[in-house]
Design brief:
Domain AAA+ ATPase: 132-273
Helix content: 25-40%
Number of strands: 11
Mean pLDDT: 85
CATH architecture of the largest domain: 3-Layer(aba) Sandwich
Largest sheet: 8 strands, mixed
Strand content: 15-25%
Distance between the termini: 40 Å
Subcellular location: Cell membrane
Function: Necessary for flagellar biosynthesis. May be involved in translocation of the flagellum.
Order of helices and strands: EHEEHHHEHEHEHEHEHEHEEH
Keywords: Bacterial flagellum biogenesis, Bacterial flagellum protein export, Cell membrane, Cell projection, Cilium, Flagellum, GTP-binding, Membrane, Nucleotide-binding, Protein transport, Transport
Number of domains: 2
Membrane topology: Peripheral membrane protein
């Protein structure tokens, strides 16, 4: 097991250093406050010392933490909340140890504040960058809600951002999907084009002049298939074309992460997270934010177009995870 010790001014800084040097699979082994600098024990600076390492089969139970009888009432509340999220054991252990460290710092007065400190230090909360002129290729598994979400994105761009929009459908496997998108295009008075292969799609993308071009791709079983190589290369070389992956928050976290791993990670610019209204657990959201440094572009909360969609910032994501609204 590769074990390293990190000293940083704050819990958040220590967590960033751990991820940078050891990666997302690092396990926190021990935490404590230390005093550095000063003279003869005076005027020192309080910092956080974290011992972490790369987890191995023989070390999965080596995490150092206080027993339940030694935990403060505040920490016990936070740990119960973390357990109810439904995350994997690996993520749960790290979140609980981070909560323990945050509790020792004494900066939290409520369970929500302690959870906020914990999530800020543990999760990768990246802002989604929008461009004035952009082509969004929306990919994802069958039934995740790509077509409906594309209509919601178009409505926001037109009515709130005063942008021009065009649609391209690459989902010719499902006639209903093509007709559905044509209906939305007619209502919004937007042009719509159909591509029957990768070459046609690339050609259509290159000829668009709208501010926002939304590409609806066919739902695939990405557990067994990958994106076409020709399309991957086009996204890689295009400055205005971005790939966003749609995943359901009602899916199991392990399945969502496996699905995401089938896409070239360096090309995924954002996540569209759907069906927030269809799950009582936010374990999948927590797992994705813990494991992936990919921005959340938007979250859908129902089937109504264009109402049931939101664009959460970092604070909103944290509020959801701590049980707020």
């Amino acid at each position: 097991m590769n074990v390293k010790r990190f000293v940083a001014p704050t819990l958040e800084d220590a967590a960033k250093d751990i991820r940078k040097q050891l990666g997302k699979d690092a396990v926190i082994l021990h935490v404590k406050e230390v005093v550095t600098g000063g003279l003869f024990g005076f005027f020192g600076k309080k910092q956080v010392q974290v011992t972490a390492g790369i987890d191995g089969p023989s070390h999965r139970n080596s995490v150092s933490r206080d027993g339940d009888d030694k935990q403060s009432p505040l920490l016990k509340e936070a740990n119960r909340h973390l357990q109810q999220l439904g995350v994997s054991n690996r993520v749960l252990k790290n979140l609980q140890l981070t909560a323990q460290m945050a509790d020792k710092q004494g900066n939290a007065r409520t369970k929500e504040e302690l959870l906020m400190h914990t999530f800020r230090a543990s999760l990768q909360l990246q802002p989604f960058v929008q461009k004035r002129q952009q082509t969004l290729i929306v990919a994802g598994p069958t039934g995740v809600g790509k077509t409906t979400t594309i209509a919601k994105l178009a409505a926001k761009a037109m009515f709130e951002e005063n942008k021009t929009v065009s649609f391209i459908t690459f989902d010719t496997y499902r006639i209903a999907a093509v007709e559905q998108l044509k209906t939305y295009a007619h209502i919004l008075d937007c042009p719509i084009y159909t591509a029957y292969n990768e070459s046609e799609l690339i050609d259509l993308c290159g000829r668009q002049t709208a501010d926002l071009v939304l590409v609806d791709t066919a739902g695939r079983n990405y557990l067994h298939e990958q994106m076409p190589v020709e399309l991957v290369e086009y996204i890689r070389q295009s400055a205005s074309c971005d790939l966003v992956v749609a995943l359901s928050l009602a899916a199991k976290a392990e399945d969502a992460r496996h699905m995401l791993s089938r896409f070239p990670k360096e090309l995924v610019n954002g996540l569209i997270l759907t069906k927030l209204d269809e799950t009582a657990s936010l374990g999948t959201l927590c797992e994705l934010l813990y494991s992936e440094a990919i921005p959340v572009a938007c979250v859908t909360t129902g089937q109504n177009v264009p109402e049931d969609i939101c664009w959460p910032d970092k604070e909103q994501l944290l509020k959801w995870l701590t049980g707020g609204v």
